[in-house]
Every structure is written in C-alpha cells, then in structure tokens.
Amino acid sequence: MSKIIFVKPPDDVKKTNNYSIGLFSLGTILKKNGYSIRIIDFDYIITESLIKCSNDNNENIEFMCDYILKENPDIVDFYTMGNSYYLSVSLAKKLKSKNKNLKIIFGGPQASLIAAETLKACPWIDVIGIGEGELSILNIVDNLLLNKKFTTELGVAYLRNGKVICNESILIKDLDTLPKLDYSLLEGNLGEKIQLEVGRGCPFGCKYCSTKTFWKRNFRLKGSERIIDEISELKNKFDINEFEFEHDLFTANRNRILDFCNNLIKNNMKITWRCSSRADTLDEELIKKMSEAGCTSMYLGIESGSKTIQKIINKNLDLDKAINTMKLLNKYNIHTTASFIYGFPEESEDDVNLTIQLIYKMFRIGVNTIQFHLFSLYPGSEYWMQLKDKLYFSNVFSDGASSKYVDLDAIDFIEKNKNIFPEYLDFDIGIRKKLEFLDMYVYIYCVTFMKYMNKTYELLVSTFGSHLEFFKRFREANYQDFESNRNLIYKMHINPQKSVIALGNLIDSIHCPNKNIISEMYKFESDIVKFIYYSKKVMILNRYKCNVYEMKMYNLDLKLANYVEDEICFTRLNSNNDINIKKVI
Asked: What is the side-by-side strand order in the sheet with 242-246?
C-alpha cells in the first residue's frame, strides 16, 4: 500500500493535535481510495517533544526531514502558507536530496497563487496542486506513483522540459458533496472545541487580499442540514460543544444565515460558536438571532479608520455604521475582535492617526480584542502586482512571515526569489519606517492604556496633540524595550504591569504645565491595574493629591482639575476581578 504523508510546517504555536481541515479533507479522500495516510503537523510534533529542537535552523530542518523519512513515504504533500513558505521550500529540498525517488507535492493558498514562480525556483517540487484540491488530489497522486506525465488535468501546475505548465484551477460548486472528514487520522487530543468548515470564498474585492484570488470571489456556503449533521457527529463522537466556523465571510448571505440559526435553535443543538463577518453585512435582527443560536464571538476586519484609505483599498466600509455594529454585538454579548492594518503604500500619518483614534473608540464602546497588523504583501493581490518589482529584504517582518527559520542562507534565497516570498520583504514608504513598532505598541500596550488607564491616556493625547504623537513619545521613552523585541511581537503577551511601568517612563520624561495632575491620574489608574491583577486584598484605601475620582468618573478635562485631596476605596466584588471604586467622603 502506497503511503502519503501530508506535512504542515510549524507556525511556532502550541498544539495538542494534528487536526487541519484542508489536510483532513484530502487525507479522507485518499484513504477511501486505499492509500495509507499520515498527517504530520509539526506544531503538534514539537509541542509533544517528538523531535529535538535546536537554535540552529539547519539542524531543525534536518530533524524534521528525518522524522518524515522514517515513515518511508512514497509522496510528501506540503500544505503551504505564506508565513512558513520558506521553511516548506527548504524542507522539501532536503527531503529530495536524501531520497531522489520521493515525490513532492505543494498545495494550499501560497503555492497555488505563485505556482509558476515556485516551480521555476524549486525544481525539486514535482507538482503543485492549484486551488481546491479535493477534485484533483487523487489524479495527482495516481499520476506520480505511476510515473505518468501530466497533461491537461485541471488543478495542477508542473514543469515540462524546463517550461512551466499551469492548468486551470478547480472550484467545487456544491460543498455538500464533499465527504465528511475521517477523524481516524487524528493524532493527539481534539479538546473541547474544533474548527468546522461551513463554506468557502468571499464575494468582496479588497485590494490587499489574496484569498479573493484563490477563491475567485466565489462565495459558497454548506447547507444548514449538512452543517448541523457535522455538528451532531462531533458532539456525539467527541462531546464537543464549542465550534469555530471556518469561512472568510460567513454572513454574506443574510437569509441563509437566518435560516441556519433557526435550524440550530429548532434542533436544540445547545452549542456555542464563533465566525468571521463583515460589519456591513450585519443588522440587529441578524445579530440577535445569531446570539440566540449560540454565537458568542465574531471576527471583523475593519482595516482603517480613514475614509480615504477605505476607498483606496476597496474595503469601502461606512465607519459610523461599523461602530454601530460593534455596539449591537456588545449589546447581544457577542465577543468582538476588530482587525486593523497600517502601512499601506498610499497611507499618510493622518490616516494612521484616524485608525488609532477609531481603535480607541472601539475599546471605549466595548470591543473586546484589537488586532493590528503591519501591511504585508500577499501573492495574487492587486498590491502584489503593483509592488512586487520594488521589494527588498529589510529584516523587518510583518506577521505574514515567520522569522524563526530565516538565517543567512534563507536571506540569500529569498532575495534571489522575491516573487515567491513577498511576505518576507518590504517596500519603501515613509510611514513604515517612521512608525516602526506601532503594531507592537498597539498589540502589547494599548489594551492596558485604553481599557484601564484611559483617562491618563486621554490627558497625554490631549497634551501631545494626537494619538500618533503619543505613540512617538512613548516609543522614544521605551525604545530599548521595543528594539529588544523586534520581530517577536506575536511571541509577546499582554503584561499590564509592564505597560504601567512603560507609561511611567513616558511621564517621567516629559515636561508640561499639567505634569503633576497627569502623574496623580497615572498613580490612581495604575493602582487600579495593580489591585485588579496583582493584589490579593479584598479592600484598600488610597489617597491622591487632586480630584482624580471626579476627573475619571465624569470625564473632566485638565481645566477642571484641582488640588483637593481624594481618598478612594477599592473593593473586590468577586473572583472575576470585578471591583468597585468609591470616593470616601
């Protein structure tokens, strides 16, 4: 029996299993057709210490290669994403050098979108599956094992006499025809929640997005009965009641989502679920129904607080309506994650300041989580076509690329093959350098400032003149910390105490007429953070040299500050860190 190994390279995250929707879907099809299948997810393998880990990139690639080869595979199929593409290419090359008879397949979004460029640069790859692989994987595997030449088969790209042939990709019209996933491929513990594919494709055309190219803007949704059937199977087999619905834009078809929610309620499924949406596809009726059907969390891409940038990137959100949508989600207790991007080619500092200003508004109205990304080029997007000839290696990575396996050898290969590694490269635009570390600042520090120390933050923004100027002064006061964590943003964790100390560094560094008032407000709000996170006391009393309580509770500006001493009582209400703050009269 021929053996096929599917490989998911590491993203440097902890995983308790090898579950992957795409690989399980392809593995299910091949297993039904008599092939021996194993899915190797190296995040899981590394988490479980099944291979050695080293500080040397070449050693790690060697360890991964040996782990794969000990399975004696006939074919190795890589699932490719931009953030680990260099590692996929390097690992495939190492495998081929150790076993020249081994057949190598690349598939997934990254390889599909730059198939021709990849095959030219990487002749050790035998074939690339383009687009959705369920209709082509069996033919690809059969051809490779029989040493048959590819011709006009759909969904494949290959080299023929040094020339790249890219045949048309395939999209599946009816996703309900896909076989249910074979969970016997599972290694490790599935846990209490799972990702469940409910559809594919987004009908919108954002300029920065590559998935619209991969899916050809072809929105499809599985039928309600099919989704509920899969939910029931997972509940019965694994006692799972929490689901993450995988779809770029689950709510694009309002009526079908209403129907789905009504069916969930009718079938008394009693599950919780999260999904991705777009602010202008939601209204109160739909949000209310989704909440009733178990939706507890939603991801929305907002991208920019600038109307100008909204138009340029072809996102075209009405930002006032987006804010209202966030309020409605909060009203119906749906946890919201809002995502933003900065560093677009056309973007000015004023545009970025509007984005930070919108982020602050969203924190204040109850948005739970903010993501903030340095703009990254993705193959297949309009921006990639516009900028791919202007890219260079700058050693500054967006979160679209992992720096862990990028050494001197990698840099040389990336620079020689810029078209296949755009996520690892940069382009010249003033604000990308001027606003260095802005993503780290928002991701690590702003949660504490905007949620818990919002009055101190407001006073400093007012003093400096803008949100962006606040950032620049903050970065200057804490530059060593930023520099020491360069390219490590998504390994860092929000640390309220660290944020408090960093804000204190800024206040110590400034000279302004109202510094004493700002310092007292900082002391008051930092005491709140310390009491919530670091104190075990049920109650404490603190004194302050001015009316910080009234300023915070009634949102007073500096003109209404006075030096009447405040005595304030902090009381812990429960184990959830809810507290009561009351002025002692």
From this structure: 193-197, 242-246, 272-277, 295-303, 335-342, 369-374
Can you tell me the distance from the alpha carbon of 568 to that of 39, in angstroms, rounded to the nearest whole number?
Answer: 58
Query: What Å distances lie between residue 30 and 2, 24, 572, CA to CA?
Result: 10, 10, 57
Which residues of 355-510 form beta strands (DSSP E)? 369-374
**Structure-block tokens of residue 99:** 């076993």
**Helix ranges, 99-252 (H):** 109-113, 115-121, 137-145, 211-215, 224-238
DSSP string, 146-179: TTPPP-S-TTEEEEETTEEEEPPPB--S-GGGSP
pLDDT for position 432: 87
The mean pLDDT of 336-341, rounded to a whole number, is 97
Q: Over pLDDT 90: what percentage of the chain?
A: 76
Mean pLDDT, all residues of the chain: 93
Q: What confidence score (pLDDT) does residue 129 get?
A: 96
Half-sphere CA count of 496, side-chain side, radius 13 A: 15
Q: How far is CA 270 from its chain centroid?
A: 28
Could you list the beta-strand ranges (E) of 473-575.
539-544, 566-572
* Strand order across the beta sheet in which 579-583 lies: 539-544, 566-572, 579-583
Separation CA 466–CA 220 (nearest Å) = 43
Does the model's pTM come out above 0.90?
yes
Instruction: Indicate if the alpha-carbon torsion angle 196, 201, 206, 209 is positive or negative.
Output: positive
Cα separation, 72 vs 499, whole angstroms: 51
Tell me how far apart the alpha carbons of residues 93 and 34 are, in angstroms, rounded to a whole number: 28
